[in-house]
Amino acid sequence: MNSKIGGSTKFCYSDSESCLHHLKATGYDFAELDLGLPTKPNKFFEDKLKSLRKVIPILSAHLPGINYTEEEIEKCKKFIEILSDQGTHLFVIHLFSQNLRTEDYFDFKVKKLNDLSDFAKSKDSLLVLENTEEDLITLRKVFDEIPKIDFCLDIGHAYLFGKEKHCISLIENFSYLLKHIHMHDNVGGFSAKSDLHLPIGDGNINFTPIFEKLKEANYSGNITLELHNADKESRRISMQRVRELIL
Q1: pLDDT digit string (tens) for 3-17?
Q2: 12-26, 91-105, 166-180, 207-221: range with lowest mean pLDDT
Q3: Rounded to whole angstroms, what are the CA distances from 123 to 92, 118, 149?
Q4: Which of 65, 103, 107, 139 is the least crowded, having the fewest Cβ atoms under 10 Å away?
Q5: Any idea what the Cα angle at residue 18 is, between residues 46 and 223, rounded to 5°?
Q6: Do 184 and 200 touch, CB atoms closer than 8 A?
Q7: What is the DSSP letter of 7?
Q8: Is the confidence at residue 165, as pLDDT, over 90?
Q9: Which domain holds residue 211?
């Protein structure tokens, strides 16, 4: 595998520029911008992005969590437009939303994602759907109905809800769509509270068979580490462990 290893600005409680300097000093290849609140796609963000890109390459961005309102979709489009125009061309989004159960609003969400993926394509960019709590059947339906959306495998999420081999199944079923990976550790569990985003090696996930399966699938995309409030040494150790896994 020749994947680049990046770090997310999610959970960075300092300002974004300090976080990016932190990632660069630790030896990461790129940054993934988290676009959750209070970030807004305005002129200030556009100008700030130009200075951030001078610190470290920004190869991907995580769109904010949404409830699929028209206003939120337009906000995501504006983020995609600004970042694409400055050279970032991969955008992560969740199917899960706080106020809309997917099983009750599946068609509604698919329609909105179709629109958003079309827009990303028009900007020569990829929209990738990250797994959260979804099962294989639900994800298969999404990918069947939205031909322009790709897949972001979140290894930590796949280990939750008692689905020990879910990650392997996701790779086996969707490797042809796999364009990006999110990586963090946890100790398992059955709720969002168990989504701890620990440094690699601090939880119970056995990453070795997962990376063996990724190598079988000839995965060559990038990997973003999403670590909760990690210090410089935890980031460095996590990055080194991932570099060993991809050899």
Answers
A1: 999 999 998 866 789
A2: 12-26
A3: 15, 9, 14
A4: 103
A5: 80
A6: yes
A7: E
A8: no
A9: 5-246
Alpha helices in the chain (DSSP H): 16-26, 43-52, 70-85, 102-122, 136-145, 155-158, 166-174, 207-216, 232-246
Cα-flanking dihedrals φ and ψ of residue 77, to 5°?
-60, -40
Helix intervals (H) in 63-135: 70-85, 102-122
Q: Which residue's structure tokens are 């060993």? A: 244
DSSP letter for 78, please: H
CATH number at residue 141: 3.20.20.150
Q: Are 95 and 109 in contact (CB under 8 A)?
A: yes
- Tokens 């759907």 belong to residue: 129
Residue pLDDT, tens place only, 38-74? 899 999 999 999 999 999 999 999 999 999 999 999 9
Report the distance separating Cα 52 and Cα 95, nearest Å. Answer: 28
Question: What's the structural domain count of the chain?
Answer: 1
Long-range residue pairs from 160-165, CB within 8 A, at least 24 positions apart, any chain:
160/133, 160/186, 160/188, 160/189, 160/190, 160/191, 160/194, 160/195, 161/133, 161/189, 161/190, 162/188, 162/190, 164/188
Cβ(213)–Cβ(219) under 8 Å?
A: no
pLDDT of residue 15: 79
How far, in Å, CA of 77 to CA of 101, rounded? Answer: 23
State how far the alpha carbon of 216 is from the alpha carbons of 29, 139, 168, 211, 212, in Å.
Answer: 24, 22, 11, 8, 6
